[in-house]
Design brief:
The complex is a heterodimer of chains A (213) and B (182). Chain A has 213 residues and is α+β, with helices and mostly antiparallel strands. Chain A has helices spanning 10-19, 55-61, 86-91, 127-136, 166-179, 186-201, and strands at residues 26-27, 34-35, 40-44, 49-53, 70-71, 77-78, 98-103, 110-114, 121-124, 148-153, 160-165. Chain A has 2 domains: 9-71, no CATH class; 75-203, no CATH class. The longest helix of chain A is centred in the C-terminal third of the chain and has 16 residues, at 186-201. Mean pLDDT of chain A is 81; it is low at 207-213. Chain B is of the alpha+beta class. Chain B has helices at 3-24, 29-59, 63-72, 74-82, 90-107, 136-153, and strands at residues 110-118, 121-128, 159-163. In chain B, helix 5 runs antiparallel to helix 6 (136-153). Mean pLDDT of chain B is 82; it is low at 167-182. Classes of the chains: A alpha+beta (213), B alpha+beta (182).
Chain lengths: 213, 182
């Protein structure tokens, strides 16, 4: 955002705020109580759906019992000893230096997501490529299906690997969708992505930086 | 309207934007919900009254001329825009703002066109009309200036999208005018 001393689109913002009851406050998608911005999330793998939930619903349903919901962890972890050569990365065929990989339970497929001009692009990762990656990096076996992802950042020469909660990946997707301009994405989207990565590096939970829905 | 009045108005509108931001991010849903309802009630009250006032004015003798004068006042204009009662619709106002930008952009060898105006989104495209190289500093400030000019005329616009300016590579335009014109 440019710092401007002049008022911006104040009419649109005020009208939207006055009109849209659900824009600011979010509600538990299971029991409808209002939620604070830093609420918890559950994944419903069968429907590939992320739900915003209150503490009570999380306690009731988020435990690992097989009731169709899985709790999204809160911690992100930098994978310090992750091994991946440039050739291995190139072999995945992802055209951009930023992607996340998540295993989905019905089917066990590995899905790769990366930003692109048509919005976030999803592709199925070849199982052999993933198996090779897991063989080189045993810590990937600890990554929980549906609720955690491997985030790879190789933008501008970076070589960073994180184990991240899936809701943060969705937040990244939202960020890209909001800020992407034109074919190359534009200045704004890359700034937003860099901010996101530095939040991750400093273990800020990004509350306030992402609102979905 | 005096410069001081205009400054005061701009200041309150900027503050208004800030406060909406604060309320949108407010951790207590109930508090922000009450604020939303309050604002919505006041907007409705004023909006209905103003709409009736404008209707009476439109029917009155010399009403059109009075309306034209009223719109020239920044404060009245702001109020009419807020309630969707400005006599010119968003599209007309955006077209006018773009027309006002043309000479300034022409100096930099740039052409501007409106691709689409719809659902609160204005999509514009910049292209180079000659082989004039743009300074990096101009490239950086230009999108902001264009956006400012558009939302000044149409603060009811949600989003301004400018195509054809690639800031990441610093390349001014997609089309460098190789058509061999004069």
């Amino acid at each position: 955002m440019t710092v401007s001393s002049r008022p911006g689109n104040w009419v649109a913002r005020l009208q939207r705020f006055a009109r849209d009851r659900h824009a600011a406050a979010e509600y538990c998608e299971l029991c409808s109580v209002p939620l604070p911005p830093d609420h918890l999330h559950l994944v419903e793998p069968a429907k590939r759906r992320l739900l915003c939930v209150c503490r009570a619903c999380d306690l009731l349903l988020g435990d690992d019992k097989d009731n169709g919901y899985r709790r999204v962890p809160r911690r992100a972890e930098k994978l310090e000893n992750f091994r991946m050569t440039d050739a291995e990365w190139d072999a995945l065929g992802i055209p951009i230096g930023l992607a996340f990989f998540c295993q989905g339970t019905p089917g066990g497929h590995i899905l790769a997501f990366y930003p692109g001009p048509a919005g976030p692009t999803e592709s199925l990762l070849g199982l052999s490529a993933w198996t090779q990656l897991v063989a080189n990096n045993p810590m990937l076996t600890e990554q929980k299906p549906d609720v955690e992802a491997l985030l790879v950042n190789r933008i501008n020469g970076a070589r960073e690997y994180y184990r991240v909660p899936i809701d943060r990946c969705y937040a990244l997707v939202g960020l890209i969708r909001t800020h992407w301009r034109g074919v190359s994405g534009g200045d704004e989207v890359w700034k937003a992505i860099l901010d996101f990565m530095s939040d991750l590096r400093e273990q800020r939970d990004g509350t306030g930086a992402y609102h979905h829905g | 309207m005096s410069a001081r009045n205009k400054q005061g108005l701009d200041q309150s509108l900027r503050r208004l934007e800030e406060l909406i931001g604060v309320l949108e991010a407010h951790p207590e849903a109930a508090a922000s919900e009450s604020a939303r309802e309050l604002i919505s009630l006041i907007l409705n009250l004023h909006g209905m009254g103003l709409a009736k006032l404008m209707a009476i004015l439109a029917k009155a003798e010399g009403g059109a001329a009075t309306m034209a004068r009223l719109v020239e006042d920044d404060q009245v204009r702001a109020m009419l825009l807020l309630h969707g009662l400005h006599p010119d619709d968003m599209e007309t106002r955006v077209h006018r703002a773009v027309d006002r930008l043309r000479p300034h952009l022409g100096v930099h060898g740039l052409r501007i066109e409106i691709l689409e105006i719809g659902r609160g989104v204005v999509q514009l495209r910049l292209s180079a009309s000659g082989g004039i190289a743009l300074k990096a500093s101009t490239l950086l400030t230009l999108p902001g200036e264009i956006e400012d000019a558009i939302v000044e005329a149409a603060p009811d616009v949600d989003k301004v999208i400018i195509d054809g300016l690639d800031l990441t590579t610093g390349v001014a335009a997609v089309n460098t005018g190789q058509d061999g014109g004069p």
